[in-house]
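Students often ask why we bother predicting the structure of a whole assembly rather than each chain alone. The short answer is interfaces. A chain on its own may look different once its partners are present, and contacts between molecules only exist in the joint model. In this exercise we take two input lines together and write out one structure for the complete complex. Read the inputs first and try to guess which parts will touch.
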Amino acid sequence: MGLDRREFLKVAGLAGLLGLGGKAAIDMFAPGELEASMETIPLTEGKRWAMVIDVHKIDETIIKKCVEACHREHNVPDLASKKEEIKWIWKEDYEHSFPERHHEYVGEDVEHGSFLLLCNHCSNPPCCRVCPTKATWQREDGIVMMDQHRCIGCRFCMAACPFGARSFNWGDPRRVLEDEKLKELNPGYPTNQDYPTRSKGVVEKCTFCAERLAKGQLPACVEAANTVKKDALVFGDLDEPDSNVRAVLRNHYTIRRKPELGTNPNVFYIV
Amino acid sequence: MLETALKGRQGYWGLLIFLLALMGVGFVSYLYQFSEGLRITGMSRDVSWGFYIGQLTYFVGIAAGGVMVVLPCYLHDYKAFGRITILGEFLAVASVVMCGLFVIVDLGNLPRMLNIMIYPNPTSILFWDMIVLNVYMLLNIIIGWNVLSAERKGVHYQKWVKVLIYISIPWAFSIHTVTAFLYAGIPGRHYWLTAIMAARFLSSAFASGPALLILLCLIVRKVSNFDPGKEQIRTLGGIVAYAFILNMFFLLLELFTAFYSQIPGHMHSFDYLFGLEGHGSVLAPWMWASIGFAVVALVLLIVPATRRREDTLAVGCAAVIASTWIDKGFGLVIGGFIPNPFGRVFEYWPTTPEVLISVGVWATGFFILTVLYKIVISVKEEVGA
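Now the answer. The structure tokens for the assembled complex follow.
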């Protein structure tokens, strides 16, 4: 592999940043052998973050772990109400994940398969287009971010999201601390003292764990899934030709939710 | 002129006190919502806009409908309408106030409302809707007030007012076009994603606005010495008839595209709204009632004899208002959310506090309308119009 001095320093420097040495550093020079859940560049420097979910690898246990990890990380309470439900990542069946693809003769493994749904962090996000206060916007690394302290609660983004990825705080989520029934449902709430709880009247959603990426950590769901099965969820930079996600996308047939709407989702499913 | 609003008969004060009481009920209900959050409404994760935004949409239409007296008067020199343009303009003012209040009560975090101006996002249609609505309200206040005070003094209004009038005419079209764009540009909500949305909005606005104006004219004639005029009401009746026929024609166009193409996304909301899919729909009886009112309205408005008789015309206008109110103030917004992005049906129905808050907003609008119309009537009586 021909590397000039400049490229070598870049890779070596990045490897150093990640605290990688030995095999990991060599993997950088041979991206094909890279473990897919590892990063070729620091998690703080992506250009277009994306996730690939391998539906063959995830099962009820992994899904449960992912949802729990996410909701614990972000203090998402269980409000015991379908109407007020707040969810950042959740389980859904095939028919309702891909309503326009479903047909009655679909194989049982697919029909009864479970999918993990979350914000698609679309490259062309309608939610950001419609927000009247730029409380939701697209970062340079592609993450569709949400500022719950600027949001006025008009819920235009919820109408605009074709994926139902956004939740609204219809009431005060902190009532979990006082309501006896809710207290029981949410032991230890707020579960993460380092992450803010929300006030009533604002929208929230998955942020690809922007706060963890900033520290060089993988999103909570990816980390949780990886403890059970390697590469069930793969997270990386689509903009980087040699990245883990690009390798997975090259080698597998993947689908996205509602691509025909032109929002360009960045969550892919291996089916 | 404002002093004329302070002198009135018992009926006038009685009405104002009644409206104030309703406003009080609405305000107290709002305080409850403000402290508890929007969870006291029927809205949900799936149907995230409801009655409030529906009513906003409907009253933008009423506001825009006022232009149907202004346009013939100033662009076609149809002098007879000069007598009642002020009624259309003040109806628009009261309607836009209601629109603003319906947005305010719908916000999850009211204290941050000014973020729309502090951090404006020019790609957001809501931002533009706020601008066009506020400017439209200002235009109508300035125009109406100046024209009316000139009339009182027996002089012609100043030239610059005429400029504003010419601006206000396309502006009326803009407010409802922009409001339609709130819905018509959203990917994934098939019921809303239709190029004909703005046209449908305008046709229903130009039917329901003048229809309400006809009813108001009849009331004004009854309670005062100012007669808006037989000819004026008759011409308005014609406008309502044409606009409402167009409105129903546009609905048929939507139905054709949906059901002839057989594309599921285009049919689903209609199936749900009209209860065609077997599973019960809380909205179906209302949507069918809307169709029923529409049929009554079409008959009464198309048959010349019933359109020209003021009592049957009034019934026709009431039917137009009922039909468009259900269709736009209710079905349009909620239908867009059902089925949800996952293809599931999760229903919505407004709660009592939600309705009470809406009653409070209507009462505020009608309070403003009553005061403004009282001023108009006093001036008109004074100059012997």
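Check your guess against this: Chain B has a mean pLDDT of 95.
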